[in-house]
Write a structure and sequence with these properties.
Elements: E1 14-18, H1 32-49, E2 54-57, H2 60-68, H3 76-97, E3 103-108, H4 110-114, H5 116-131, E4 135-140, H6 154-165, E5 169-174, H7 199-205, H8 218-230, E6 234-239, H9 241-249, E7 256-258, H10 267-273, E8 279-283, H11 285-292, E9 302-307, E10 314-318, E11 324-329, H12 334-340, H13 348-352, E12 366-368
Length: 372
């Protein structure tokens, strides 16, 4: 098991996400002045924190559409072509925005965070870029992504990059000042919520609407904040582009803060908790108590299996009442788990013809999701 992310001894590592609307003009074209302002804000953050910020940048699709002259709804291949063309344009503009520093392009896909080996490889590439003195600029690899291969949006990507970078703070720049207590378009007296302690209640108040030229809305930002929170990373949602970054560097606290979870697990268990489950392992009440006491899941506590999962897949562990109490990486496939359900560990060889593991899910590969 790898260790939790190493936090800087002094100030925190910061990941900054900028949406398309933060770096484009009213017509959707990349705006050099806005991009330079963001670059200056990142430089101010570096001076204030002592660590190089990591930038997650949208905008490739918009730049590619403009360069290719594409209008209206696009097919998936056309969107991929726009992203492929636009990514080169986006990076060239970011390179110009940092005249005194090299920039490093990192393109990630869903598999790069879902597959453990690829996740670790991406983490190493990011850390090496930072050690080389470059400004890492991360985007989703939309030129080859399909709906099945996408993380969904760059807000979600930014939370995963915060994992990779071992960050303490995620700053999400948007075109509004933060999360409001009411819809400001309908309620002139609406105010920005300074701190969100109940993400479920906050998510229930917002809709799925996107920004001016972006693909996400406040809902996606709150989902990203949840991912970051569960890994012990604070998220601040704020508006204002480069000026907002400069304000944060100066000690201001604009926008909306989602604090980190006080009992967040280490990096590896946080990663496990975010994996899409391939199936369910049903357990009895005794197994639930054992898991909550920090023990592994043994065959004797299993009552059944659902799905077509294989060795190493993520599965939900479900209590008798139907609630998911844990998520873990399973040591046996679905058929084997069903076959050994309720049996003593010593019976595994007799049932399966082999005995590779005592545990159905080892405690090191398991995250309890529900509190006692």
């Amino acid at each position: 098991m790898d260790a939790p992310p190493q936090r800087p001894a002094g100030p925190s590592r910061v990941v900054v996400k900028v949406g398309t609307s933060s770096i484009t003009d009213a017509s959707g074209r990349l705006d050099d002045a806005r991009m330079r302002a963001v670059a200056d804000g990142l430089t101010a953050l570096e001076a204030a924190t002592g660590t190089t910020p990591v930038l997650v940048s949208s905008g490739a699709g918009a730049a590619g559409r403009e360069r290719l002259g594409l209008v209206g709804p696009l097919t998936l291949p056309a969107k991929q072509a726009a992203a492929a063309v636009g990514q080169t344009l986006l990076m060239a503009r970011w390179d110009a925005a940092f005249p005194a520093r090299p920039v490093a392009q990192l393109l990630l896909s869903a598999d790069d965070v879902r597959d453990r080996a690829r996740y670790v490889n991406a983490k190493h590439a990011l850390q090496a870029s930072l050690q080389a003195g470059a400004i890492p600029i991360v985007n989703e690899n939309d030129s080859v992504a399909t709906s099945e291969l996408k993380l969904g949006d760059n807000d979600t990507l930014s939370a995963w990059v915060a994992y990779l970078a071992g960050a303490d703070t995620l700053l999400v720049l948007t075109d509004v000042d933060g999360l409001y207590d009411r819809d400001p378009r309908q309620h002139p007296g609406a105010r920005v919520v300074e701190v969100v302690d109940d993400l479920d209640a906050a998510a229930a108040r917002v809709g799925p609407s996107a920004g001016r030229h972006g693909t996400g809305g406040m809902a996606t930002k709150l989902r990203a904040a949840r991912i970051a929170r569960d890994a012990g990373i604070a998220t601040r949602i704020l508006g204002g582009g480069g000026a907002a970054l400069a304000a944060v560097a100066g000690g201001a606290t604009p926008g909306t803060l989602v604090p980190p979870a006080a009992d967040a697990p280490g990096a590896r268990k946080a990663w496990i908790a975010q994996q899409p489950p391939r199936g369910r392992v049903l357990v009895d009440a005794g197994a639930v108590d054992a898991l909550r006491d920090g023990r592994s899941l043994l065959p004797r506590g299993v009552t059944g299996a659902e799905g077509t999962f294989a060795f190493g897949d993520a599965v939900d562990v479900v209590e008798p009442g139907g609630a998911t109490v844990a998520r873990g990486l399973v040591n046996y496939d679905a058929a084997a788990v069903a076959a050994v359900a309720g049996r003593h560990t010593r019976d595994v060889t007799e049932v399966l013809g082999a005995h590779d593991f005592d545990e159905v899910v080892h405690r090191d590969n398991l995250v309890v999701l529900a509190a006692r």
